[in-house]
Amino acid sequence: MRHFAIALTASASALTLTACGAFDDIGGSGGSASPKKGDDITVGLLLPDKDTARFEKFDYPIIKKGVASLTHGKGKVVYANAEASPATQSRQFQQMVDEKVDIVVVDALDAKAIAPDVQKAKDAGIPVIAYDRLAQGPIDAYISHDNELVGEVQGRAIIEALGSKAATSKIVMMNGDPADPNTAKFKEGALSELQNKVQIAKEYDTDKWSPAVAKANMKKAIQAIGLNNIAAVYSANDGMAGAVIDALKEAGTTKIPPVTGQDANLDAVQRVVSDEQYMTVYKSFLDEATHAAEMAVDKVQGRDIRFDALTRDTVDSPTKKSIPAMLVPVVALTRDSIKDTVIADGVYSVKDICTPKYEADCAAIGLK
């Protein structure tokens, strides 16, 4: 279910509930007369990889800071990164269960494979929040972005870029990892905009979201379609977008066709500034990570009213229906909207983006 507008800015949405005092009012009475635990809590955080820059740079630090802030400095986060290995993530999950953390927040590399670990946590009385990707098994809540909307925003950007030439244009689709449940949602959203409007000449799935795999597949696409016949590339995220662009450059392109992305990685934002990458989808790390910390603390402390206020949506997984969820809005980041997104939210400064290599391109779009 989708109840958010694309145009809602991340900075505004981050403050919606807290700034108006909704949580302060509820929190004044605790939201629960007898919290299950005090502030001395341990949150287990499992993130999937280090190739996606946001996880190490934003998600983990924000969640760690959020938990500390909400528990008067007494709560802690035990963190592990699977580095793209489902087997490693399973071991890390088991270790957290063995250590009896109070709650696990997990961004599952393989949504189906993680289900037995979620069940073990449940059996041990440890609640589990699925973060960013919808894990299977008896999870207690889910927080992510509206992933179908992400694909729609990407697909719509391609159609707008191609304009009147869309119907005769050949594009390549570089989808994410099929083991990631978000991949299907991204693809579904993109196809809702692209199908019957462009010619999808080649389509690839990308194991573990690997840029190296995406680059190899892009080389195959160039050989099969012809470099000058590729009008645009739907890339599901920024890591793959960079690899796609590298493959196009190495093939000798004189003008890079529109390439989409997702995550607003710094190098992707710089590629947008220099007009190498057409757009990326900005998903507020601040919103998602901040609310994940709130959900985790509220769940452990038994503050049901506050928890319910955060999870007003519901989603279904293959193994559980009507999972309480928060779906955070997304926005397209283009050359025209950099100031209003990542800079306005303090994700990057102009200095971060406009390094000497990009100074001229920044000046050209008034970014200084």
First-last Cα distance:
40 Å
Number of helical regions: 15
Low-confidence stretches: 1-34
SSE pattern: HHEHEHEHEEHEHEHEHHEHHEEEHHH
As a percent range, the share of strand residues is 15-25%
User: Outline, from the CA principal axes?
Assistant: globular
Helicity level, as a percent range?
Answer: 40-55%
Q: If you compute it from the alpha carbons, what radius of gyration comes out, rounded to the nearest whole angstrom?
A: 21 Å
Query: On the 0-100 scale, what is the average pLDDT?
Result: 90
**Structural class computed from helices and strand pairing:** alpha/beta
Largest sheet: 7 strands, mixed
Strand element count: 12
Strand order of the largest sheet: 2-1-3-4-5-11-10
What does this structure look like?
The protein is an alpha/beta fold. Helix content is 44%, strand content 16%. The protein has helices spanning 10-19, 22-28, 53-70, 86-98, 115-123, 147-162, 181-194, 211-225, 238-250, 266-273, 285-301, 304-310, 339-343, 350-353, 359-364, and strands spanning 42-47, 76-81, 103-106, 128-131, 141-145, 170-174, 199-204, 230-235, 280-283, 313-315, 323-328, 330-333. The strands form three sheets. A seven-stranded mixed beta sheet has the order 2-1-3-4-5-11-10, with helices on both faces. Strand 10 and strand 11 form a beta hairpin. It is globular, with a radius of gyration of 21 Å. It starts with 9 loop residues before the first helix and ends with a helix. Residues 1-34 have low confidence and may be disordered.
Give a brief rundown of this model:
With 368 residues, this protein is α/β, with parallel strands linked by helices.
